[in-house]
Structures are given as C-alpha cells and as structure tokens.
TrEMBL record:
Residues 73-93, 281-313 are annotated as: Disordered. It comes from Coregonus suidteri. This is Uncharacterized protein. PANTHER family: ADENOSINE 5'-MONOPHOSPHORAMIDASE HNT1, HIT FAMILY PROTEIN 1. It comes from the Eukaryota. InterPro entries: Histidine_triad_HIT, HIT-like_sf.
C-alpha cells in the first residue's frame, strides 16, 4: 500500500502494514547505536560539515546513513546534484514530485535497491520508504529508507498504540492513524479533490484484476465497490480513496486493482514502477498550505513500533555510524 497525503505537500509511505514487533531491544546482529546529549559546545559544532557514511551509490544517486536516525540504519537517498556557486536551484529541488518522470522513477528504483541492501545486511524482513518535501529549495529531494527491526517472516497487521492528528504541518510525516472522520467531512474533502478531475461526476470503475474474482481482502472489496468508500482518483490499474482514519485532512490510500504483496520493495519491478507512476498522478490532485509547528523532541525506536515517521532521532556518534557503515558495505 502506498499513502499520499493531500497531496503535493506530502510524501509517500511504503509498506505500512507489518507484522507485530517484539519488545524494544536491539537485534543481536546489529551494533548498538551510540547516542550523546547535545550540550552547547556540540550544538555549535553541528554547523560544521559532517562526514557522510555512504552505503550505496550510482552515477546519479547516493545513499548514506542518517546522522540522526529514528531507527537503526535509517538511510537518506538523494540525487547527486552539484551546482556552481552562482547556479540557481532546479525547480525540482526539495520535492520528489517535481522531478521529471525519468528522475522520479530513478530515485524510487534506487530506494528499492537500498531497501534490498538493508534487508540483506541488517537481517530485517522489510523496509519502509518515507518522503517529506524539504522546505529548503536548495536541497535535493530526499527519500528515507527505514529498516523495520523485529518483524517476523509471517505478515500480521500491527498498528501504533496511539492516534495522531493535526490540521497543521508538524514538520514531519507519520503513518499513525487518526480519529474516525464523519461521512460528511469525508464527502466534503472528496468533492474538493474530485472537482479538479476532468470528469468529477463520473461513475466509479469497479474493474477488479485479481485472479480470484471474490478475493476477500478489504482493498479488493473496495476496488469492486462492495465497501463504503470515498474514491478520489482512479486509472486502469489503480484506485485512490480517502481513509476514514486520517492523521491530517485528505490522507489518501492508493492501491492496485490486482492484489499484490504488502511488501512494496518486493513487488516485481513492473508493478512497483506502475504504482510509483500512479502515485505521481495522485499527487497532482490537490494542494494545501498549512503552517508549521516546532519540531518535536527527538525520539528513537530500536524496533518497529507500529508506525513509521520522517522525524529525526537523537544524534548518533561517528564511531557507531562507521561501524554500521562497515556492516552494510562489507
């Protein structure tokens, strides 16, 4: 499943439903993450250039360990975009969805490769993808690939223990669910988004592409029109609809018409690419402007807590980042 939130401002989450995680503890194969408090002297030092602990790169892309990881092995993937001192930033700077189609797909396919690498070297079963547009137009678009530590091979749904909801931009994105919206509120948002479609009042296309025409999954029933829904967009291969439990106005779920694995990074490349391109189309559905809030206190999750987020964690020591880099690149 791929989430896209209202819509140009917000990013994407991949693989949001995962098996139940065990108690919070470091996997035995993973070196502990060393953390230290930020005293005034270290705050002043943080303005100095920090070394990048690169774990994967191509001629166009580079992936490196996040110096403030929310979970062990959090990785930042971005294009290599060197510019001269007087060169103006590209219109795509800071936003994944402003990239041209080729660069956009290249970045998402790069994330797929990085996710496979992290799963192999860190011994995790799944990774998630999170992207939030950077407010700094001089920064390249970034994707965060998050290893989901502590999951079993068998898939089991697991949701966060608490809800999250905001009308304003908190400075990060999260996959936590929010309180149930009323049908009337969902219909109002649905109408606002659909008003920008070429045929806002068109009847829904209920074509289902699964081999079993009676597949019992929730998304399959939604595609076939058997469940109450607030559909906002569709094409020949995908359907997008509002979730009734949004953590912000307009939180939208995008699913394929054919049942596929919930592990996005393990989709066949053609299915993965098709889903990525559909996400780019959904992103064009609406835009909103919201005010920002102060960043929250840094949190750290040693194992998957039932949600993913683009929040930064506490600062990691260079020694621990080097150790983890060596483990991944060996």
């Amino acid at each position: 499943m791929l989430l896209v939130r209202f819509l140009r401002r917000l990013p994407i989450f991949l693989s949001l439903y995962f098996p139940l995680s065990p108690p919070l503890s470091f996997p035995p194969s993973l070196p502990p993450l060393c953390l230290f408090p930020l005293f005034p002297s270290s705050i002043r030092m943080s303005s100095l250039p920090q070394p990048r602990h690169v774990i994967w790169e191509t001629e166009e892309l580079v992936a490196y360990l996040h110096p403030r990881p929310w979970t062990p092995g959090t990785t930042i993937l971005e294009p290599k975009t060197p510019r001269g001192p007087g060169e103006e930033p590209s219109p795509a700077q800071g936003s994944l969805f402003r990239l041209g189609e080729g660069a956009y797909l290249g970045l998402l396919l790069g994330a797929r490769a990085v996710g496979a690498l992290l799963c192999e070297r860190l011994g995790v079963k799944r990774c998630a993808l999170v992207c939030r547009p950077c407010p700094d137009s001089h920064s390249p678009p970034q994707i965060r690939v998050l290893p989901l530590h502590g999951l079993d091979s068998e898939w089991r749904p697991h949701l966060a223990g608490d809800e999250h909801y905001t009308h304003h931009d908190p400075g990060y994105v999260t996959s936590k669910s929010g309180p149930r919206w009323t049908d009337t509120s969902l219909q109002e948002i649905q109408a606002e988004i659909r008003a920008q479609l070429p045929a806002p009042d068109a009847l829904p296309n209920l074509t289902f592409l699964g081999e079993d025409p009676s597949h019992p999954g929730l998304f399959s029933r939604i595609v076939r029109g058997e469940e109450q829904q607030w559909r906002v967009w569709e094409n020949e291969g995908h359907v997008a609809f509002l979730t009734p439990f949004p953590n912000a106005p307009g939180l939208t779920v995008l699913v394929p018409r054919r049942p596929l694995t919930s592990d996005i990074f393990r989709l066949e490349e053609a299915d993965y690419t098709s889903l990525a391109l559909a996400t780019r189309k959904v992103d064009g559905g609406s835009t909103t402007t919201t005010s920002s809030s102060p960043p929250p206190q840094a949190q750290f999750s040693a194992t998957y807590p039932g949600f993913v987020t683009s929040e930064d964690g506490p600062e990691a020591s260079l020694e621990c980042l080097k150790e983890l880099q060596a483990k991944i690149t060996q």
